[in-house]
Amino acid sequence: MKKILLLIFTLASAAAATAQQELMISQYMFNGLVLNPAYAGSHPYWSASVLHRSQWVNFENAPTTQTFCIDGPLFGKKLGVGLTATNDQLGVTRQQEFALNAAYRLDLSRGYLSAGLRLAGANYSANLTDVVIWDTDDVVYANNLSNEFAYKAGFGVYYFERNWFAGVSVPTLFSSDQNILPENSDINRFFENHYYINAGMVYEVNPVMAIKPSFLIKYENAAPLQVDLNCNILFFEKFWFGAGWRSGDAMMVMAEWNITNHLRVGYAYDYTLSTIANYSNGSHEVMLGYDFGSNVKMKARSPRYF
Asked: How many domains does the chain have?
């Protein structure tokens, strides 16, 4: 078990340079702001959500993630603003982050194009001395990190029409993370650039059913390319049911219930496909969302699928 925990931590550390340092959640298609700051204010109303993810249940020191997102339009819907707050724990590491997101939207002939900026502050801690290592002289693990603070900046572009969307984003394009790097290390930065490309389309089969296929491509220079493929089906404009596949990781099933025009609740389960499945019962996510504002009733007359 100690060897497995070391592997998990190594994947999360800068020394390995293979980290998926940005959030990984399965219900990203219902929480667009966590991927792309240009998503802020894309609805004519304000929207908020909270999410909890327990990854690799029954695995000792398994990752857990909590997110809070809120966004909405300002100034005649030309400007969108949003706030995200996250707590991400992986083994002996913990990162807490608060981010302000702002997007400017252009009204094109058929759809809308938004460009967004993300400014964040991250608080990072790591109990490195708790890790069992073979190389006892490795300076990376010589001292703990406690509440080390770093500024971050990211960027994104998002285009959408009523029945399809596409976005490109780099959530952390810049970071002031020199204080997190170990002394005498040849690593020149801690937080790596992660590149996201996602898109999807909605097919309105009939008045009671719509099908929404989508994909997400995630790339980081020192890690393998990862692809999420998903398909969700909406019934009676209230119930989403879907499934997906994440390369090298898991199969997912998920559901969302739009209880009212304002309130929605979601759940996702990941069935692990890697050897970690020998030690874990999969991953669980629960989400609660609330939409509000003077234009929220527009959802009933002209539903938005993303």
From this structure: 1
